[in-house]
Amino acid sequence: PTVAAVIVAAGSGHRAGGPLPKQYQSLGGETVLACSIAALSQPGVGTLACVIAAGGEALYDEAVAGLPETVARRLLPPTVGGATRQASVRAGLEALAASASPPDLVLVHDAARPFVSAALVDRAINRALAFGAAVPGVPVVDTVKRVDGRGVVVDSPERGALRAVQTPQAFRFAALLDAHRRAAEAGRVDLTDDAAVMEWAGHEVHVFDGEPGNVKLTTAQDMARARAEAEGMLE
Ligand code: C5P
């Protein structure tokens, strides 16, 4: 089967602070985006489609300039994303649909997760082949509460049954594209991951083991810690 990846990097990244959106900040000499692209470009993965913010073309060009030719030649021209992650993913899927050879499977990955391992990418592909829709998840260490608008607890889901899900999330391409198109058409624009889009469309989604190290860089503190690790300053 052919496999492509959509890498979403169209967020403002403002929670991370700093002069540049976090996906363009540097981690030990490489941008977060370049690290994520390199991590996703495993042997089983063909086309890589990045989604960027309007006006971000120059930052994107600069970020990918240092990638090895074997990776760079798999990049589609970047697509401009939307106001939400959901809209940005859809833009990337539509770019793949319009390309010369739409894939059988697609991996959707947050540019903000640069530490994903080759083994996890491989596992995502294999699980999507077996189940059609598969996402990595890790057990939740905090007790989670659902609260109402006043901050009052509504209920406390049983912790052992909860998983914090990560990316890459892997799907049969045609099914994910169709689910995204239908959700947008139905006005469902509040879905925060692609599993939720598939769930909304009535598909069963399988959760497999993610990796504790596959964190999403969100805050300035996340960035500082990641940079220190990348530069080997933490033991
Ligand atoms: O904001 P959050 O951390 O959930 O973003 C997850 C990923 O989705 C990031 O890589 C971000 O760049 C991307 N994103 C996007 N378009 C948006 C919002 C987020 O591509 N409108």
From TrEMBL:
Pathway: Isoprenoid biosynthesis; isopentenyl diphosphate biosynthesis via DXP pathway; isopentenyl diphosphate from 1-deoxy-D-xylulose 5-phosphate: step 2/6; Isoprenoid biosynthesis; isopentenyl diphosphate biosynthesis via DXP pathway; isopentenyl diphosphate from 1-deoxy-D-xylulose 5-phosphate: step 4/6. It catalyses: 2-C-methyl-D-erythritol 4-phosphate + CTP + H(+) = 4-CDP-2-C-methyl-D-erythritol + diphosphate; 4-CDP-2-C-methyl-D-erythritol 2-phosphate = 2-C-methyl-D-erythritol 2,4-cyclic diphosphate + CMP. Residues 1-235 are annotated as: 2-C-methyl-D-erythritol 4-phosphate cytidylyltransferase. Coiled coil: none annotated. Its EC number is 2.7.7.60, 4.6.1.12. Keywords: Isoprene biosynthesis, Lyase, Metal-binding, Multifunctional enzyme, Nucleotidyltransferase, Transferase. The record marks R15, K22 as: Transition state stabilizer. Its cofactor is a divalent metal cation. GO terms for molecular function: 2-C-methyl-D-erythritol 2,4-cyclodiphosphate synthase activity; 2-C-methyl-D-erythritol 4-phosphate cytidylyltransferase activity. Bifunctional enzyme that catalyzes the formation of 4-diphosphocytidyl-2-C-methyl-D-erythritol from CTP and 2-C-methyl-D-erythritol 4-phosphate (MEP) (IspD), and catalyzes the conversion of 4-diphosphocytidyl-2-C-methyl-D-erythritol 2-phosphate (CDP-ME2P) to 2-C-methyl-D-erythritol 2,4-cyclodiphosphate (ME-CPP) with a corresponding release of cytidine 5-monophosphate (CMP) (IspF). This is Bifunctional enzyme IspD/IspF. It comes from Alsobacter ponti. The gene is ispDF.
